[in-house]
Structure prediction request, 528 residues.
Amino acid sequence: MMGNPNQPIFILKEGTERVKGRPAMSANINAAKATAEAVRTTLGPLGMDKMLVQGNTGETTITNDGATILREIDIEHPAARLIIEVSKNQEESCFDGTTSAVVLTGALLEKSEDLLAQQIHPTVICRGFRKAEKLAQEELDKIGWDCSLEDLRRVAGTALTGKSAESASDTLSSICVDAISAVKDKDGTINTDNIKVLNFEGGTSLESSLELGVLIEKEKLHSEMPPSVNDASILLMNKALEIKDTKFDAQLSITDPSQINDFLAQEEAALKDMAASIGLHGVNVVFCQKEIDDLCIHYLAKLGITAYKRIKQSDMDALARLTGAKFVSKVDEITDEELGLGHVSAVEFGEHHCTLVRSDSATSVTVCLRGATSHSSMEVERAFDDALGVTSIAFSNKVIAGGGAVHSHLARHLRKESIKDGSRVGMAIEAFASALESIPRTLAENAGLDPVDTLIALRKAEGTTHGVGVDGEIIDMVEEGVIEPRKVVSNAIGCATESAIMILRIDDVISMKGAKGAGMPDMSGMMG
Ligand code: ADP
Ligand code: MG
Prediction:
C-alpha cells in the first residue's frame, strides 16, 4: 500500500527543535557577531577594560584580555562558543592576539552577510575565504624580519600596551627579555618552564624584579636553622616527615600513665632518628612537599639543617630541575645520588618572607611582579604572561609591524587579487579584505576617531608598516616601536577563517530535547 506522499514524516524525537536554512545561518552569524562585539572595545592601546562579576560569589575580575573575558562569561549559544574556541586556540598557540582573532572572525561573518544578501551561495563564500586566506598567508610569509634584542623588548612592550601593566611597560618588558635570555639554551630553545612568575600584592608594578633562581614563598621552619646556605646539599622529600601510626585512636586502652610516656618517648626517638638519617648524608637543606612534625623540625634545627615544608608540587619540580635532586619518599632510602646542589638564601619582598634557591649548573629565574591590590597584580600577571609568551615566540619567529599595519597591507594586496579573479569568489576575497580592515578600524574607533577617515588614509598608504598610532594618526609603526611576532597575525587569520567557514557551512540546527541554549546537547547526564 502506498503512503500519502503529502504526509509529513517525523524522523526526530518529539521535543527536538529544528531551524533550517537562512534563519539558522542568520541566528548563528548574529550570535558570533555579538560575541565579537563583546570584546571589541578592549582592543588596542586605548581599549577599555571589563569588570566581570561572578553571579554566585560576586567575585570580580578586571581585565582587558579577550580570552579571559570570553572564558569567564557564561555563553550558551553554540555558535558563540565556536568563537570562544578561536580565542582559546589563539591563546594556546600565541598567548596574545586573542581579541584581534575574535574581532576578525566577527568581521568575516559580518561581511559574509552582505554577500548572502546578494544571493551568493555560502559554499562560494567559503571557497573565496579559503582562497583569500591562502593568498594572505603567502603574502605574510614574505614580510617580517628577524628581531634584535631591542626588537624583543618592543614586542614585549606591544603586548603590554593597553593593559593596566602599561605604566611599567619598560620595566616589565626588560624583565621579560632578561628572563627569556637567561633560560635560553645554547641551541636557542627556550624552556619557559624555567621561568616562574609570582605576583605579590603590595608595592607598584615598577618595583617588579627578576630573581635568578627559583623563588619559593616559604620561610625556614625554625629560628635556629641557618637562613642561608651556600653550596648546600639539598634533599627533596615528597612524603611527610612524621609518624602517622601513633596518632592515638579511641581503641587504645591505657591502664597506666607511664604507657603514654613510653609511647611519646618512642615517637620522639623515631622522629629523632628521622632527622639523624637525614643528617647522616650531609644534607644541609630539606624541602618537604608535605608536613614535617614539630619534633622532627626541632631535631633538624639541632643538626643545623634548614627545612621547609608544604612546598608546592610545581616548586618541587622546579627545584629538582634546578638542583639535580631526585624525589625521596623515605629517609632510609636517601643516597648521595638523590641529593642536589645549590645555594639557598632568605629574601624578603615587602612583607613576604621567601627563599631563593640558585644553582651554578642550571638556570631558572623567577619574575616577581608587584601590584597595589590583588586585582591589579592579577591583571599585571595576565598581561605579563602574554608578553612572556609572545616574546618567546618572537625569538624563533619573524616580527612585523603592529597597529593594524600588516592587516591593511594584506587588505590592499587581496583587493588587487580580487579584481584579478573577477568572479563571485573574487567578491568573497574582497569581503575578506574588508574584514581584515576591522583591526585598524577598531583601533581607530577605540581611539575615538572616525574609522572611515582612517580606512581611507590607510588604503592610500604603501608598504607594510603604516598603521594606527595611539592617537589614531597613520604612522610608521616600526618607528613607533609597535611590533609583534608574525605568528600572532598568521595564526589569528588562520583560525578566524576556519571558524567563520565552519559557521557559514551550517544550514540546519537540530537541538535535542533539553538542550542548553539554542542547541548544545546536554552533557550533564554523561558525567559521573
Ligand atoms: P589582543 O588580545 O588582540 O592582543 P590588544 O588589546 O592587546 O588585543 O590589542 C592588540 C592590538 O593593538 C594589536 O593590533 C597591536 O598591534 C595594537 N597595538 C599595541 N600597541 C600599540 C600602540 N602603541 N599603538 C598602536 N597599536 C598598538
Ligand atoms: Mg595583546
About this structure: Residues 17-145+400-510 form a domain with the GROEL; domain 1 fold (CATH 1.10.560.10).
